[in-house]
Amino acid sequence: MRRYTLGRRQAAVDETRGRILRAARRLLLAKRGADFSLDAVARRARVTRLTVYHQFGSRRGLLEALFDDMAAKGGLLEALPNAFRQADPEEALARFVATFGHFWAEGRPIVRRLQALGVLDPELGKAIAGRNEWRRQGLRVIVGRLGRGASSDQAVDVLFTLTSFHTFDTLAGQRSPEAVVPVVLRLARAAVGL
Predict the structure, then answer these.
(1) Class for domain 2-57, per CATH?
(2) 30: helix, strand or coil
(3) Total H helices, total E strands in the chain
(4) How many CB atoms lie within 10 A of CB 31?
């Protein structure tokens, strides 16, 4: 009996968490995204501010959870390990670029808002920068596998820039998101001498 009760309680907690994340996403995409706060999210999710706080700890925690949720739903958590499993490092690079291109395309409006909030909120900015460093670490692995030698730090820096949201967003301004990945991949291959 107790196990069943705990299962129902966890399901209710998960449903509440999902409702809060959906409310946060809708608020960020609203025209007045600058009005984003724990109180506003709580009102929109029909929960108390304390519930939001207990689930996420802070505004930054909520925004980080939203980013994690986007990564999970955008396939990032499944596609990146697949890129690294490629025996051919050139194919690993191609999949890495395609994975981020797809992720940036899927979440473009909300990533724009998160980036803007990161500029206004230094704590969130640090969190976003930390997550971007994960991308840099992945690129170090790929460049190492490509055997780029002494220029590897420079190659990583260039690839980091090419696979960033800012680069994607700029290039996608004049192209469809599907057309951006081949452009970035061509530039990435040139950057590492392929």
Answers:
(1) mainly alpha
(2) coil
(3) 11, 0
(4) 6
User: Cα dist. 12→5, 50, 53, 58 in Å?
Assistant: 11, 16, 16, 21
CATH number of 69-191: 1.10.357
Q: Is 81 helix (H, G, I), strand (E, B) or coil?
A: helix
Q: Rounded to 10 degrees, what is the CA torsion of 30, 74, 126, 18?
A: 60
What Å distances lie between residue 93 and 32, 78, 158, CA to CA? 38, 16, 13
**Tokens linked to 22:** 């959906």
The tokens of 66 are what? Answer: 């939203």
Instruction: Give the C-alpha separation, 187 to 159, whole Å.
Output: 9
* pTM, 2 dp: 0.79
Identify residue 167 by its one-letter amino acid code: T
**Two structure tokens written together for 113:** 């808002």
CB 67 within 8 A of CB 76: no
Q: Cα-flanking dihedrals φ and ψ of residue 88, to 5°?
A: -85, 120
Q: In which residue ranges of the chain is CATH 1.10.10 found?
A: 2-57
User: Of all helices (H) and strands (E), which one includes residue 1?
Assistant: none
Handedness of CA 142, 147, 151, 153 (dihedral sign): positive
In this predicted model, what pLDDT tens digit does every residue of 100-154 receive, in sequence order?
A: 988 888 888 888 888 888 888 787 788 888 888 989 999 999 998 887 654 688 8
Least Cα distance to 93 among 189, 2, 21 occurs for 189
Looking up tokens 């499944």, which residue turns up? Answer: 78
